[in-house]
């Protein structure tokens, strides 16, 4: 099928729903560990509590990708029904997460939230490949990254902003502060509204051969064999990108799960207070606990706000790439390599900064890596696979995102960090080393079509 080139606003409209998806991910990534700590989790237990997130991605994305490849409605298209269903579930879960009364309920809500976000997210990746010709693929994925950057920046700063408007950061022991609850409620509203915008402003191409599509759709019990077959016939470029993805996502999972305990402890000097260390029946000790807890909550707001900087940085990086790739070719391999190495340096700097203001430098560098991770691997992959199987291929590619996170959650982060010492900040050093290794792994990519594509007619 000869796909026509789309205008800036058409690509913007089809990508806008990612604003809501990233609100969900940013609130989850920036504040779930804080919620776990507030509900009594020890810092060494936090990675394991995050296991729900990658496991749901491992299960949900290939299934949703397979199903969306076999879905077609003249009114709703192929991918949009999944956007909408996932958005409704995600919005409900986002609202409920900070109201969790116990640790196990919070972990359960994380499971539901991540599964719901994945239902919306995977078809968005496939939509870019569905709608855009090869010459606009980099442009399209970078546009998604631009919108993701906006979402990360705003959502990560929401608890701090809500607190500045007068909503309390103080709460009783084991209760999430109202500032976080209000922030998550705003995120739920933005999630649903932005997905609805894309659903109602974007159309989709029908299957190129409707008769063949209906025959494929009519086949029964093909899901497992098809998934196994597609894994077995995985292109070489996809396997090599998998190595890059492994180290990239190990690093970012480490940041999402451990940045709050690491930075509140090492940089802000306000670790989460342990209630067992205070005699709460004694007024002075109860007041001391409340003071320490409020200091931890306020520092956590600032950690979230600083983390938002990587969204802002990735947005600026994506904007530059949008402007450049709309007219010229880029070498995806070297762009991705350089961005990942700079992000790794950002993580390594965290252990040595003299005050929290310098965290901005670290997260700006991390944002360059994040902006590249959200665009370059997908642009390289989409130029190397069968377009008729784009949904299921993108779902399978997600394995290279979730497997490193599962490894990290099952003890990888704690084990490697412990080799450097028992301070929580060592987890950020591990993230930095991992991201630099991801950058160097780009030397494995040699397919010319994956590395670069001419984005304008010569």
Architecture overview:
This protein has 458 residues and is mainly α. It has a single domain (8-451), classed as Growth Hormone, Chain: A (Up-down Bundle), CATH 1.20.1250.20. It has helices at residues 8-15, 17-38, 46-49, 52-69, 80-96, 103-131, 137-164, 178-201, 210-218, 223-232, 236-266, 283-325, 332-349, 359-373, 376-382, 390-397, 399-418, 426-440, 448-451. α5 packs antiparallel against α8 (178-201), α7 (137-164) packs antiparallel against α8 and α17 packs across α18. It is globular. The model is unreliable at 453-458 (pLDDT under 50). It is found in: Membrane. It is a multi-pass membrane protein. It comes from Tenacibaculum adriaticum. Its main location: membrane.
Provide a concise account of the structure shown.
This protein has 458 residues and is mainly alpha-helical. 72% of the residues lie in helices and 0% in strands. It has one domain (8-451): Growth Hormone, Chain: A.
